[in-house]
Specification:
Layout (H helix, E strand, L loop, with lengths): L7 E2 L5 E3 L2 E2 H8 L3 E5 H17 L4 E6 L6 H9 L3 E4 L2 H10 L6 E3 L6 H10 L3 E4 L2 H13 L4 E8 L21 E2 L4 H10 L4 E7 L10 H21 L5 E3 L17 H19 L5 E4 L3 H4 L3 E13 L3 E6 L8 H5 L5 E3 L9 E6 L8 E8 L7 E5 L19 E6 L2 E6 L4 H4 L16
Parallel strand pairs: 4-20, 5-6, 5-13, 6-7, 7-8, 8-9, 9-10, 9-11, 11-12, 12-13, 15-17
Antiparallel strand pairs: 1-2, 2-3, 4-14, 14-15, 14-19, 16-19, 17-18, 20-21
Helix pairs in contact: 2-9, 3-4, 5-6, 8-9
The structure holds pyridoxal-5'-phosphate.
Length: 442
């Protein structure tokens, strides 16, 4: 059993996280319940930040809030001195509502609307990561209308395929994101913005993939970008003040994953950027990164209650939990793998292999296949590890299942940061066809 962060087995044989007994959490908040180990998030954030600081490099570490966006996590990111990456009006709204400093917000997205760009400009956010020609047109028009200047990065697809699952790769040439680095697109984009009176081209952005376990992909992408910088320096006298190398740093979901310490990625990036800047005799650009999963992924654990069981003799035993693809769609979406334990019986040795089924009306709603567990009973608590990234943020209301609650735990204290959705919340946006039919009208 691999325990992340502050997780441990307490004297009752229960899983404890952040000094709080998960069985007590279930009694108080119910299941499914997302539990975040705040100390572990702080540790990860500091590892990134301190490495840049120790190397004396100007940097921004922006939390990619798509991994898990809520007012509390945004505030925690601020407490830890992080910047913030948002990709929609909704994520931007959450950040502003949380009181996050707008000048440390970076706005991504491959189809930002007029309303979203206007919202970002009016809030005077730190920078917009421009993805395509349509966005350049919009930005020129809107900045002129509002007589406002804006810092931008241009996102490029460097054509580096990082070793990762195909469905979650965003850095290939055949990608919906960014300007191609090699077919003239990026030069067209630079020419369109370089002398615009309202747009300031701060630098270049790339993101090569997700759940990456080696530094090679980052090195290759950086080298390709620097080859272009050499050209741009001659042709436009332009060199980037900022190089944003994205996120994608891999974490340990299961024993098959062997991630690098986060500082190794940072050290390698710094080494390569320094070496190439020196070769070109240009000022060292600021290095920005935007980790999501590696900041919050292994800090999240989901607690479920085990309900029904089905035995298919000689084939498999299914254990059903009170959640599934409605609170964690990753296994159904891209066969993501997890480890799990019985949180109320940690000292019991696994003596059978079971498969964990969700409660949604989809046979693909399977959370874990072939999990070793002690023989489980109805009412036992299943703790699934490493669910902190792209879990709650992708939660949905399929089958009109209510989204779970989220608690932060630290130093023996639990704090509810997202309350459980209620049935009333579920119908909150519905408008009747026949008002007189409503239960409340009778
Ligand atoms: C542009 C960009 N930046 C950062 C991230 C965060 O990636 P990760 O959570 O793998 O660190 C993503 C994820 O898809 C992304 O698309």
């Amino acid at each position: 059993m691999y325990l992340h962060g502050t997780s441990r087995v307490n004297e009752k044989g229960h899983l404890e996280i952040g000094g709080v007994d998960t069985v007590d959490l279930v009694e108080q908040y119910g299941t499914p319940l997302y539990v975040y180990d705040v100390a572990l998030i702080r540790k990860r954030a500091r590892e990134f930040k301190n490495t840049f600081e120790e190397l004396g490099i100007k940097a921004q570490v922006a939390y990619a809030s798509k991994a898990f966006s809520s007012i509390a996590i945004v505030q925690l990111a601020h407490e830890e001195g992080l910047s913030l990456d948002v990709v929609s009006g909704g994520e931007l709204y959450t950040a502003l509502k949380a009181g996050f400093p707008p000048n440390k917000i970076h706005f991504h997205g491959n189809n930002k609307s007029v309303e979203e760009i206007t919202m970002a400009l009016e809030a005077k956010i730190g920078c917009i990561v421009v993805d395509n020609f349509h966005e350049i047109d919009l930005l020129k028009e809107l900045t002129k209308q509002l007589s406002q200047k804006v810092d931008i990065l241009l996102r490029v697809t460097p054509g580096v395929e990082a070793h990762t699952h195909d469905y979650i790769t965003t850095g290939q040439e055949d990608s919906k994101f960014g300007f191609d680095l090699h077919n003239g697109q990026i030069e067209n984009a630079i020419e369109l913005v370089l002398h615009d009176p309202h747009i300031h081209l701060l630098g270049i952005h790339c993101h090569i993939g997700s759940q990456i376990f080696e530094t090679k992909g980052f090195v290759l992408a950086t080298e390709k970008i620097f080859r272009k910088i050499a050209e741009w320096k001659e042709r436009y006298s332009f060199t980037p003040n900022v190089l944003n190398l994205g996120g994608g740093f891999g974490i340990r979901y299961t024993k098959d994953d062997d991630p690098l310490p986060m500082k190794v990625y940072v050290e390698k990036m710094v080494e390569v950027v320094k070496e190439h800047s020196q070769q070109l005799n240009i000022d060292l650009p600021e290095i920005w990164i935007e980790p999501g999963r590696s900041l919050v992924g292994d800090a999240g654990t989901t607690l479920y209650t085990i309900g029904s069981q089905k035995n298919v003799p000689d084939i498999r035993k299914y254990l059903a939990i009170d959640g599934g693809m409605s609170d964690n769609i990753r296994p159904a979406l891209y066969q993501a793998k997890y480890e799990a334990v019985l949180a109320n019986r940690l000292n019991d040795k696994p003596n059978e292999t079971v498969s964990i089924a969700g409660k949604c009306c989809e046979s693909g709603d399977m959370l874990i296949w072939d999990l070793p567990l002690p023989e489980a009973k109805t009412g036992d608590i299943l703790a699934v590890f490493c669910t902190g990234a792209y879990g709650y943020s992708m939660a949905n209301n399929y089958n009109r299942i209510c989204r779970p609650a989220v608690v932060f735990v630290e130093n023996g204290e639990a704090k509810l940061v997202i309350r459980r959705e209620s049935y009333e919340d579920l119908v909150h946006l519905d408008l009747p066809l026949h008002t007189e039919m409503l239960a409340s009208a009778k």
